[in-house]
Amino acid sequence: MLTVDYELLDLRPGMRVLDLGCGEGRHAFEAYRRGADVVAVDWGVSEVGTTKRWLGAIGEAGEAGLRPDGTPARFEVVRGDLLHLPFPDASVDRVMASEVLEHIPDDVTAMAEIFRVLKPGGRMVITVPRYGPERICWALSDEYHANEGGHIRIYRGGVLRDRLASVGLVPGRTHHAHSLHAPFWWLKCAVGVEKDNAAVRAYHRLLVWDLMHRPWLTRTAEKLMDPVFGKSFVVYADKPATAAGSASVGAERALAAG
């Protein structure tokens, strides 16, 4: 289940891309198949292990995309802190951070780190839970978010764009995704996040079926519904081509933003 639109990200073979807060690697896998050199980063030990195993399996199966010189794309998986990324200034072409910033208290510092590691002219994409559907989940269940490692904020689109701009990034296109998943989580929150019943199981089977078969009917329905209540908000932003690429520019703007 992909949230990022790789065409809007303008991801091309041979680019070096960071997948920050990679989880179990869904976005890293697709970038790797498209011929990008992927560096997947997460703080979770199990997430790092799972992503490394699956990227390795993709490579062994010959499914890695090709770089411009005809060689297979490369990958690396590391355990890292998004507030202190272990990469040099201006060292990557693209950055993805999907469903991670809502977990980080100091989100502006994480954005400044993204600015720092991006090359001038590079592009990043961030996805977060959309305000409306997420607010319903919070209203229905404290268990959904009020736990260790849970969601600590709900972003409005304008706030997220302003914070990206505060560190020197230039926000661009936006869209929404996964409207079919919003009612599932409302149902889960109403029943109890850790509980199960026939309705939850039936809806989950529908989502799995949709993921496996991608039928025209549900794909069309979701495309029509995404602008109304898509569960994820996606924003793309660029680092200006004239930026120095040092940590100082982004850090100064992050400090100014408070």
From TrEMBL:
Pfam families, alphabetized = Methyltransf_11 (PF08241)
In what residue span(s) does the Methyltransferase type domain sit? 18-126
Q: Which GO terms describe its molecular function?
A: S-adenosylmethionine-dependent methyltransferase activity
Q: Which residue windows are transmembrane per the record?
A: none
Q: Does the keyword Transferase apply?
A: yes
What keywords would UniProt list here? Answer: Methyltransferase, Transferase
Q: What is this protein called?
A: Methyltransferase domain-containing protein
Q: Which organism is it from?
A: Blastococcus aurantiacus
What high-level taxonomic lineage is stated for the organism? Bacteria, Bacillati, Actinomycetota, Actinomycetes, Geodermatophilales
